[in-house]
Structures are given as structure tokens and as C-alpha cells.
Design goal:
This protein is of the alpha+beta class and 437 residues long. Helices cover 48% and strands 15% of the residues. It is built from 19 helices and 12 strands. The chain has a 4-stranded mixed β-sheet with strand order 3-4-6-5. Helix 4 packs across helix 6. The radius of gyration is 24 Å and the shape is globular.
């Protein structure tokens, strides 16, 4: 999705590095290199300055020296205006779960065999406690629910659960943090909280009931985010921090207003229906104001550039701040995408489509179909990032490709007669994002 950029991946596990290098070679990715080593052992000279940095699935399990090294790397190597995505275990939602894995580690220290053998034995001990109506489990329904789900996956023969727990539950340094603690250490590294990558969390209307809205003071980020955490009970946060100077926020807004495109995957009526349904599951209600309805109407009419959307709104006498808020509300939806390029036009009447057959996408599809993984990430040149496809669509695309015995170049996909739903609903979406065209 970003062939003009250079990427660096870091991992202390030699096996992980070997797999990553193999994957990069198979996907013909020539703009990435990998560094094998612990964060605290990597020489700063080996790391370039960067505009984007991310750590996912690791921060909360790192030993203290590695955590400090992460803060130092981000503080020294992230350029001004650069963005850092941090994924971590968050309180209070994760706190009731941690004792499960602490006990698992302690009761399996003498178990011989692999780490997965340790996990298997530990889970059976936890099962015995649950069957005996352990006071902790009966009084902590969230922990009991997590245990039950993992035991069910084990009973169903899911091989990934033991690997996952061996990686996470056996980690000695598992550490759960409140938001204000993370905000503080990021501040020491020169970074400011920009928002959550889970975009609905950034607007109280989309994540809190009306009676709690007034408790969220925009000037007190720490208190507002913790109120959301206590209400939502999430166990993990994915926060975005920015290394900002005084001019960065204004420059960012100007860039988006001049360069951003937006792509809706459903008509506005369907968007509102799904939006309301999703919020009702959280006992919340969507209250679309006239500006949001205007914005959705623009999408129906094919307006994709924010600058055109803003121009039309200003011509109707709508204040710029209200237009920006409507724009942000729309981007909180998973079926509305922020794009770096103008979304492509589609022709829904075509009987065939052509796959954007980058080696990366073809490899991802083949592996998803072969392993039964839940999702596959497809590179989208329009998004400038990836789009997750569920197992059904991924298997369908891969099967259609293999029925043609494709070479490693763009291949036409004929649609079988019984696959009309796939063609009429998903294919236009993938075409607009340049994944299929």
C-alpha cells in the first residue's frame, strides 16, 4: 500500500524474524528490513528517524528495561509531527483477568515439556477450580467468562489457543496500566495523546450514555478517558500519540481538509440503520443532526473529497466546525473509510473483476484459505493501508483465483451463477478501494 516508504521491524525472537523475512520475500516486499534483538540491546545508530511507529501485542509483556528502551526510542527517533500507536492492556477492565494467568504461571513452574504443555496443565487446574465453584471465579464473572471461552476453544481442538496463552499468559512481566499512567510516560518522551484508534471512543456521543457526557471535559484528557474505560470496561487500548509542536495540530487539520477522501461502503439509509443497531447493543442512541444527514447525502451523491464536502456545506451556510464534526462522526464507522487517494469508480454490471494481484495480496489470500485464519489483510492503494476481509470472502476470492490456475499477474475472475451476493455487495467495495479492479 505504501511502496514509496521504508519500514523497519524489530523482534527479539529469531524464529519470528525468520518468518517475517520469509513472508516479506514471498510477498515481494523490498522496502522493509528486520532487526533481531531486544529493544534495550538495539543500538540507536541502527534505527532511522521515522514518521510512524507502532508496538502491538508486546508492550504490556515487556520487562522494565525494554519498556524504558521503547520510550527512549520513540522519544529520540520519532520526528516532530510523527505518530506513535501503542497497544496495551488497560485498567480497570483487564485487572480481574490477570490473576488467572498469575496462578497459571505459579502452578506450572515444575511442569516438564514445552510452554504449551505448561499451559495445558494450568488450564486443567483452572478448570478444576471452576468446577469446584471457586469463590474468586464465582465473584468475578468477567474472569470466569474468559476462562470458559478459552476452555471451550481447547475442548474444540483449536490449536491456536495454547500458543496464544503460552505467549501471553506465561509472560512474567505482564503489566496492566491505567490510561493516565501511559499518558504520563508518553509525555516524558515528548508525545501528546491524539486519540484512540478505536474512533468511536473519541466522541462521548458514540460511547457513553447522555447522562455521562458532561463528565468528559475536553481539557482534562486523563479524567475523560478513564471515565470511558470505567464505563466500557475494555481490557485493551490502542492509543495514538503524536510528537507535536505548536504548529502540528493546525497543519494536520489543513492537510486533511485539502487532501483527505472518504469512501462509504453502504448507502446513507443503510449506514444509519447499521449505526443505530450497533449503538443500541451498547444501550446508546444515535441522534443524527441536520449536518450529519447533509454529509451522508453528499456521500450518496458521490462527493468523496473533504474539500468539496466543505465547499458545499459552506455554500449552504453550515459552519466549518460543524462540518468537521460531521466528518469525524462518519469516520467513526467501520464501513466509512478515510482514503489517501480518490476512491475508484465501479461498474456493478460487470460479470468479471480483476484482482489487484500484488504478490502480497495473493500470498495473504492463499495463507488465509490454507490456515483457516479468521481474517486476512488486503493491501489497498486507495486507503494507503490494509482492509480486513473475513474468512468467507477471503476463501471465495482465493477459490475463484485457483479455479483459473492463475499466474503471478492480474487475473480475471469469472463469477459463478450462485455467487451473486458476493458480486453485488462485496465486489463494488473492493473495487472502489483498488483491491479488485
Amino acid at each position: 500500500s505504501n511502496p514509496e516508504c521504508q519500514f523497519v521491524g524489530i523482534d527479539f525472537n529469531p524464529a519470528h524474524i525468520a518468518i517475517a523475512r520469509e513472508d516479506a520475500a514471498e510477498g515481494e516486499l523490498r522496502n522493509i528490513r528486520f532487526i533481531e534483538g531486544a529493544f534495550e540491546d538495539i543500538a540507536m545508530a541502527d534505527l532511522p528517524e521515522c514518521d510512524y511507529a507502532a508496538i502491538h501485542g508486546a508492550y504490556s509483556w515487556l520487562p522494565p528495561a525494554a519498556v524504558e528502551a521503547v520510550h527512549e526510542i520513540v522519544g529520540l527517533k520519532l520526528r516532530t509531527g510523527g505518530v506513535f500507536l501503542l497497544d496495551y492492556l488497560s485498567a480497570p477492565g483487564r485487572i480481574p483477568i490477570s490473576p488467572l494467568w498469575t496462578l497459571l504461571r505459579e502452578v506450572t513452574k515444575t511442569v516438564e515439556g514445552s510452554s504449551e504443555d505448561r499451559v495445558a496443565r494450568g488450564m486443567e487446574i483452572l478448570r478444576c477450580l471452576d468446577n469446584a465453584s471457586s469463590h474468586y471465579l464465582t465473584q468475578t464473572p468477567s474472569a470466569r467468562s474468559v476462562l470458559a471461552k478459552n476452555l471451550q476453544r481447547i475442548d474444540n481442538g483449536d490449536p491456536s489457543v495454547l500458543r496464544h496463552l503460552a505467549h501471553h499468559a506465561l509472560a512474567e512481566h505482564q503489566n496492566v496500566k491505567f490510561f493516565h499512567e501511559i499518558q504520563s510516560v508518553m509525555g516524558d518522551a515528548g508525545l501528546k495523546f491524539a486519540g484512540s484508534s478505536a474512533t468511536p471512543r473519541n466522541d462521548p456521543q458514540l460511547c457513553l450514555p447522555p447522562e455521562l457526557h458532561e463528565l468528559c471535559d475536553p481539557e482534562d484528557t486523563a479524567a475523560s478517558e478513564m471515565i470511558k474505560d470505567f464505563f466500557l470496561g475494555g481490557r485493551q487500548r490502542k492509543d495514538v500519540f503524536i510528537k507535536a509542536d505548536r504548529k502540528t495540530p493546525e497543519a494536520g487539520r489543513e492537510f486533511l481538509q485539502q487532501n483527505a477522501y472518504i469512501c462509504a461502503m453502504r448507502p446513507s439509509a443503510a449506514l444509519l440503520q447499521f449505526w443505530s443497531r450497533d449503538l443500541e447493543k451498547q444501550n446508546l442512541q444515535l441522534q443524527p443532526d441536520p449536518v450529519l444527514l447533509f454529509a451522508l447525502e453528499c456521500l450518496d451523491q458521490g462527493v468523496t473529497a473533504f474539500r468539496d464536502f466543505k465547499t458545499e456545506g459552506l455554500a449552504r451556510g453550515i459552519h466549518a466546525d460543524h462540518l468537521i464534526r460531521a466528518f469525524n462522526l462518519m469516520l467513526s464507522r467501520p464501513d466509512i473509510h478515510l482514503c489517501r487517494e480518490k476512491p475508484l469508480q465501479t461498474n456493478d454490471q460487470r460479470e468479471t473483476a480483476v484482482v489487484n494481484a500484488s504478490a502480497f495480496n495473493l500470498t495473504a489470500l492463499a495463507r488465509s484459505a490454507g490456515s483457516g485464519r479468521k481474517n486476512v489483510i488486503m493491501a489497498s492503494p486507495v486507503l494507503g493501508s490494509g482492509l480486513a476481509l473475513g474468512p468467507g470472502p477471503a476463501r471465495t476470492i482465493d477459490a475463484l483465483l485457483h479455479s483459473r490456475a492463475p499466474a503471478r499477474s492480474d487475473q480475471e475472475i469469472p463469477f459463478p451463477d450462485d455467487n451473486r451476493d458476493f458480486e453485488t455487495r462485496l465486489m463494488p467495495r473492493l473495487r472502489r478501494l483498488g483491491i479488485l479492479y
